[in-house]
Amino acid sequence: MAFSWIAQIAVYAQTDTTYWRRSISSGLNLNQATFSNNWQAGGINSIAIGLFSNGKADYRRDRISWYNEIQLQYGLFRNKGQDTRKNLDRIFLDTKYGYSISSDWNTFASANFLSQFDRGFEYDVDSLPDNRRLISNFLAPGFLTFALGLEFKPVVDWFSVRFSPFAPASPFSPTRTCGRTQGRWFMAYR
Q: pTM here?
């Protein structure tokens, strides 16, 4: 009976005609630095945590390719004498449809989305919680970019460069006040 089951799996594997390749990776990073008073070189006690999850799903068949990627990253740290702050915060989604015109060149249409999970602050020099200014929040700002162009891919799955003469980027925010001042994003709540 076990032999019959194994034979069925082998037959199924031979008839599988999927053109998809998928991968997922996730992780947790923990960091701690502790210095004693006897350590003359100095240092600040700190602790940090980081989470990440990355996923890819690629479709290839004949001259058509469809590439999809998601990156989710979030990290916090705390130095002695300061409040907890985020040091990593990223939501990134990318999709690209390509059509091969030669062995190294593809035409493509793509869209990507970039934002963050949590509130972000700008801190003054003394780093007290009362001396911080809100500059970002969940989806505020968010960036949506569309592109059309050519992709140079001399080595499949290792290196590629996208050339896009048309790539409009659209920043957006669901909050009342969000924008740029002196080249920096700002956000204010009423």
A: 0.77
